[in-house]
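FAQ: What does a multi-protein file look like?

Like this. Sequence, then tokens, then the next protein.
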Amino acid sequence: MTDAPDRSHFVRGLKDGAPFILVIVPFGLLFGVVATEAGLNVFEALAFSVVVIAGAAQFTALQLLSDNLPAVIVLISALAVNLRMAMYSASITPHLGQMPLWKRALAAYVLVDQTYATAVLEFEKRPDLTPSQKFAFFAGTASAIVPLWYASTITGALVGSSIPDSLALDFAVPITFLALIAPALRTLAHVAAAFTSVALALTFMSLPYNLGLLIAAVSAMAVGAEVERRMTQKAA
């Protein structure tokens, strides 16, 4: 996946992505357990993780499917939860957009919260990296995360409810997003967007079909963009 000169950057990405093992494994185990409890077999649980490869959206879709909601509602809700991926794509394109089609397709597939957060921080700290070196780093990060997501999903589906509640695997979900968001709150615009999303998500949490998440996400983007515009205008 990487050329010899880019191997060191691949290894660097592998190392930087390794700490997420601490949350990816329990996150994947939890999904595997929940999937089997919802009636999916091991193959279906794994296929879910391979095709969707987005933990939050997978949990959302699984919950709505368990509630026997219409498929269109399930799809809309999952897309709303994953709306952030569009922002990730726009942010990462200047760094990887010059790569060949197959590399861009691969990057798009493994573009998840952890790979994005790790890569974009590296790219901002080291703007001198070539596109090839950036892709090598990104591939290394994904190699530390994605296979473990598959493996832990299978393990969770196989062991099912035999995992004791005392392990509290559900801690992985909030811890994952806290670990991703905290380092990214570097400007007033970032903080404003984060505060808006949390406040509105809590305010509208009673809305059906997870519409509150959609409202919070769109509003947070608008607030962040407006704060950034005003700060730029003031600086000018």
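And here is the next protein:
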Amino acid sequence: MKQANIISDFPRLPEDILQQAAQFQTAILADVSGRRGAMHGRIRPLDSRMSVAGTALTVDVRPGDNLMIHAAIDLAQPGDVLVIDGKGDQTSALLGAIMVAMCKARHISGVVVDGAVRDSIEIQNPDFPVFCMGTNPNGPTKNWAGRIGHPVSAGGVTVSSGDLIVGDADGIVVVERHRISDVLVAAESKVAEEAETIASVRAGKKRGPWLTLALRKAGVLAESETLQ
């Protein structure tokens, strides 16, 4: 049964990759990923100062039941980020202060919950990032089987164990493992490009022709018209 429902042995991302990824805003990573991979905006950090970069360890649970989350905490390795498919249920919390303390003791990097948490004041500490839909004081049950390590859907995004998870004040971005190298290279270029654009704006340089061309293509302006 364990072999079928639990996959805990998969390649974790090296520390240097995680450190590199942590340098980028989620907005940059989302842009260079083709504007895909960002979880629904319902998944938010409990505190805007929270940020995370780690390897996904996926957890699939029944709504309102956290049995498999307890198992995942025990199986997690340092640097893992628990990504919990709570089915978007907010009728009860899937974790709180005690489980966060357990996560810290295991050196888990953070938790992403498509569901609710509780003890929000106690766990609203930037040193352990918790991303979730919201809060509910109701406690969960611990009765139902689920799966660990299998692909899940969280925040509308498919997540597999071993994927890169990056989160900040804007939300969570998932980068599939096989795309990580290309995405990080593109992110470096994007940061340099945006810095150049901002410098041009501050220097008073005029906008390039793309806006006029886009407005013409959209039918807002005729071919002979300009904004000014």
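Q: Is there any per-entry metadata?
A: Some entries carry free-text notes. For the entry above: The mean pLDDT is 95.
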